Amino acid sequence: MVLDLSTINFPVSGITSYKELQDIHLVSKSTTFVHEFNLIPANEEIQSLLNMTGGDVYKTVRIRTIDGEKIILDTDYLRSDIIKGLEIKHAQNSLYEYIENELGLTISFARKEITVIPATDEEKKLLDMKDYGLLVCVRSWTYLEDATLFQYTVSKHRPDKFRFVDFARRDKTQKM
């Protein structure tokens, strides 16, 4: 048996923070660089994506390096009326650790959409793209236990390094 150690399995059906992936050794020799951290007014698009009417959001842009290569670009928008007191140190460490352990909120579920998209010139500058012109894009809408939408994330991955995995169970009662 030959194991492909050049790719990293990312669970699709669960909600796992990047730090948790590191802690369970699905990601090796990794660092996070906070490229951008701001509290900004939510524009119409972000308001629509987060189901809000006005207000501010925290915007974080983080670059993840694995084995010295910049291969993930995560952009998060978090509702500031729900996620209070967020600081750059939380973005550097773990957003979910802050939300759950310091704010005492319970993250419950997410809706995810996975596509392949062309990399922009900016993404090509921020990531080590090699000869790749495409990125795997995972968009996530994440909710608290009371079904409140609090986060919208766009996570872009260099395609050669990642494999998204899921565990599925057949349900004969479900109709298409």
Highlighted features:
5 helices; 176 residues; disordered N terminus; alpha+beta; 8 strands
Structural description of this entry:
With 176 residues, this protein is α+β, with helices and mostly antiparallel strands. The chain has helices spanning 18-23, 44-49, 88-93, 95-102, 121-126; strands spanning 8-11, 30-41, 56-66, 69-79, 107-118, 134-144, 149-157, 162-165. The chain has a six-stranded antiparallel β-sheet with strand order 2-3-4-7-6-5. A hairpin with a 4-residue loop joins strand 6 and strand 7. The longest helix is centred in the middle third of the chain and has 8 residues, at 95-102. The protein is globular and about 45 Å long. Residues 1-6 have low confidence and may be disordered.
